[in-house]
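Continuing the series of single-chain predictions for the mutant panel. This is the parent chain; the variants come on the following pages.
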Amino acid sequence: MLSDIEIAQAATLSPITDIAGRLGLSVSDLHLHGQHMAKLTQSTVNQLHTQPVRAKLILMTAINPTPAGEGKTTTTVGLTDALNLAGYKALACLREPSLGPVFGMKGGATGGGYAQVVPMENINLHFTGDFHAISAANNLLAALVDNHIYHGNALQFDQVSWRRCMDMNDRALRRITINQPYAYDTGFDITVASEVMAIFCLATDLADLTHRLSRMQVGQSTKGQPIFASDLHAEGAMTALLKDAFQPNLVQTLEGSPALLHGGPFANIAHGCNSLVATQTALRLADYVVTEAGFGADLGAEKFIDIKCRQSGLRPDMTVIVATVRALKYHGGVEVADLNTENLQALSTGMANLKKHVDNMRQHFGLPVLVALNHFTHDTEAEVALLQSAVESWGSSLHVCRHWAHGGKGALDLAHAVARMAQQTASPTLLYQDDLSLPDKLHAIARSLYGAKDVTFSAQAEQQLGTLAETSRGLPVCVAKTQYSLSCDAKLRNVPEGHTLHVRELRLSRGAGFVVAICGDIMTMPGLPKQPASHRISVDANGRICGLS
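Parent structure:
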């Protein structure tokens, strides 16, 4: 059996100009990055955004992830290929992979098997340099803060809240001390969790990007007044660093479907959606746009709607929830080593996690839902039948997908069902209103979506609640918690009851337009596992990358 990278390297790719042509774009609309990658020019994006939206927006989400894998990106690619194979005009909108998981635990994020976006190696590594530009802009601001203090501190910094970032897992950088011109404690976040990344993904255009960057709070003065990036005259230079990166990236799937990959925040510690500018562009280039939100629906889908849609006015037409038999058995108590053995009892128990996400999407967000079963070889007929019967009893439908092995033709049933359902009129809603207090918003998320009995706050978070009471008014909340559980305890599988969401810290992201609530033991700078994925990666004598998956 070929590995993902071997499948990708064996593929014959179309020139990216041909892919663009299928969208009605010409060479003059592109900044080429070789034969198979391109950026859409800013003038082209601006012109497209004056046109009316033509596409149906399909939100791809999933159950809570497990070590068994779910395949949300793979299913997004498979569905896009299947829609195009069925005669619809479809385009995928995905996030760019971060180097953190590529070299860490997860590996790459370009799909798998015969449902991948390519060129796989380029996308998973440096791609077009967007993340490096975001890191540079973030760290320029950090340098300007320290430089200002060094040269006399005219703004009278008393506290510095701005943190540096790097697109790599490195737990040693979580806490650092800056020793000149005076000592203060700070640290690094991974680039995908930075406010600059969030702004990059939520800004509507270059002017909005500059404005949001200017509004970022970097510290507080001795008089208790906020100090902004604009006080350091940083926003112009930061925009200059981000200007080219801000143009969406165009690539293709193994079957030649077009895909826009742009931005890449993690949904467990950030808002987890691709860039708004890419999504808005895609909606004017195709009839169906399939976009994913990170991790499970409790994180990515909630933030897609309550942050991205709230700020932009976007509304998805429907959602697809991805599950696997293996992952549901894991939620039902089976350990990884035994997941290939039929276990109807564990599957029945673990289905509660899927049902919770289906109910959440319907009841709290008003979205029509389909369930995509990402099929594995060891799934038995009895297991599939049991799951199909359960999903139908919930008033939804299950579609068995074999896109990993067969590409688009393995997801045709799902594609036709999506095309039918997307024509229905949906009335999606937000989970909470703008005017609620920050604690009330957290209670709404924790109780409605997570099934928590309560929300508690550390002493630090309690103090921050008082400080943020006025400045957070009207802002949505971005919950940073483990992706592995509906709770903030990664060990609690399935649908835990009676748990408490514990808020450890609150961070105001003024420019991005939300407040981050850091819960449980989640870290905004991940660490590497004992056996990182980097151990498998190498380059052969011909310069071909090996072991990337």
